[in-house]
């Protein structure tokens, strides 16, 4: 039984002894707020009806009893109805030893639950952009955090490889491509296809404007412009299995997949399984037919199929168009059912932007109407958009921030700032490039993930790579500094060991912070919030740097104190590495 459990047991026994009753609710300790002295706090107000004393008197009685019963409690302080308990330094040293003795400190044993996480979900008509970067980094980190909480995690990607969007790129290539390929153009395949999508939109806008200028209503022009009519016709042919259309679709999608894989590799992202809408939309259609037969859906006179959600406070939702082609909702229904049959997940997390909040509300409702009780296990991790100082991004106008370009920019910025430091002269060119990639990606990942997922964020590449701010490179530099100290200690054959020598307050603060790591991992899992992990890593790095400015490690003449400080540094480095690993950030051994 650890000290916290013994404190709780002592409180329960004291309540029974002093007031003659067993507490109705389990006694809980809280972390003492930073502005007060103490480590753990017990709120006594619920006991006042039985103690029949003031809050101060009740707390004082309990505090005196705890001091006698639990030797690790050094002192107590009463602030109105709050009993603040201060633990002895030797208690915190025992906690440091516990951290060192626990190989997977911060992680939980297997829960027996399966969690599916869908992220990325790109369209095959354009390359990945800054918005996709936030999606991918969130999805990857949430997956790692769920694994740390003991769950079996299935990371999945749903590629939107069909629909009107890809038909637009295909049509533009047919009309203007002149048989251009990634090889002949020297472009990544996703970039090439994205250029044709932009070309379609440009020519489509011109057609619409010409029609409007000739007196056609804009809404009518948007539907009847020749290019849009051709794209819609191509979509119908694709669903009918037209050989020429399907062949072109396979070829251009293949170009895009190759491009995506290159970008995923640079981000350190991978998936356990990739689904394709071209496979799942047919199952979605089968579900719609079943829903029609069961009276869950209805058919309009124009042959389109709908679900009426007005009784649930929503509106009517289209499931099949009049021409029989499916919509996103149809495909998502089929995909969800297919995944549950395959994996029987306990929860399914969709990492999708907040513009799709309504979509997932509808998805869950329709699945429940179809009789799938597990619809309640669907979770939409709704994240805010990423904005730039210049404003929002627009895919159709070609003004998005390309993911590959951004990664290149981050690595180049890391290169410039690292070379300015003048500390890399003895590194090989290959090691330097590896370091620049670590720093650039570390800066990008940390800056994205340190923000609460639900908030819209402003991304500033230069700020993200500041070595002195709340950034990934600051944490990476701190880790490299500790590893350098430990290497030098090894060269001098200095040993690392806990000797129970007195510790200064800043050392105790480091240990107290490290003991919160398991709770941070748990809370980040419950809230799907990598930002909590990022905050922990930054706090630990900042606390260490403040500590290191005040004390000497390698030059400490007292051998036991030196060994004890090295022991502390090892655990700090270990938790920095563990926490950043949950964000997908690699920490370099040297900088």
Notes on the protein architecture:
The strands form four sheets. A five-stranded parallel sheet has the order 7-6-5-11-12, sandwiched between helices. Strands 1-2-4-3 form a four-stranded antiparallel sheet. It folds into three domains: 85 residues, 2-Layer Sandwich (Gyrase A, domain 2), CATH 3.30.1360.70; 238 residues, 3-Layer(aba) Sandwich (Rossmann fold); 179 residues, Isoleucyl-tRNA Synthetase, Domain 1. The longest helix has 25 residues. The protein is globular and about 90 Å long. α6 crosses α8, α8 crosses α11 and α21 runs antiparallel to α22. It is α/β, with parallel strands linked by helices. About 1% of the residues have low confidence.
CATH fold category name of the largest domain: Rossmann fold
* Low-pLDDT ranges: 392-398
In total, how many domains does the architecture comprise? 3
The end-to-end span amounts to 43 Å
Write down how many β-strands occur, each being a DSSP E stretch of 2 or more residues. 14
The general outline is globular
Specify the structural class: alpha/beta
Largest sheet: 5 strands, parallel
What CATH first level of the largest domain would be assigned?
Alpha Beta
Strand order of the largest sheet: 7-6-5-11-12
Q: Helix amount, in percent?
A: 55-70%
| Gyration radius, in Å | 30 Å
CATH homologous superfamily assignment of the largest domain:
HUPs
Proper CATH architecture of the largest domain: 3-Layer(aba) Sandwich
Count of DSSP helices? 22
Strand-residue proportion: 5-15%
The chain-level mean pLDDT equals 93
